[in-house]
Design brief:
The protein is mostly beta strands. It has a single domain, classed as Immunoglobulin-like (Sandwich), CATH 2.60.40.1260. The protein contains no helices and 13 strands. The strands form three sheets. The protein has a six-stranded mixed beta sheet, with no helix packed on it. 34% of the residues are buried. The structure holds calcium ion (2 copies). The site of one calcium ion has 7 residues, from strand 2.
Length: 172
Amino acid sequence: MRSWLFTLTAAACGGGGGALDASTAGALVINEVMASNDAACADAFGEFDDWVELYNPGDADLELTGYTVTDDTAMPAKLTLPAGVVVPARGYKLLWCDDQVQGVDHLPFKLDAAGEQFAIYAPDGALIDSVAFGMATADTSFARLPDGAGEFASCAHPTCGAANGATCAAVP
Ligand SMILES: [Ca+2]
Ligand SMILES: [Ca+2]
């Protein structure tokens, strides 16, 4: 059984994933994902739901209106994000994968703790970033190390909406 298998397609890495618009290439990354949340962090409704953390390394806020997200890359436009989802400059934004109608940052699907994928696309359909992860342990995330740029690693100290720790064995 393969447990910790990551297949990454990062915009910053180039490659054969299709052309990226210069204005979006490298401007947004999937930074951390949690598919089994028992007590790590709660949404505004006090619910410990699955989540994805986006990071904007740029100097300007990113409004994600018209971007699409999915947990199945065969269906890139599973959800088209409405107005109001903003990733602040050099900041983080959590998207809750809870299949609940609780606001613009709540997506109509959950993440499978047995293994799943998540991807985000620009309004023109260009892939921004994607991650595929294996079996998730409760309250353990998959986080880019170093923060915002590195490869995904299993992370015992999730940092919801904040910089990933210097190592996943330590809180930043
Ligand atoms: Ca919720
Ligand atoms: Ca984080």
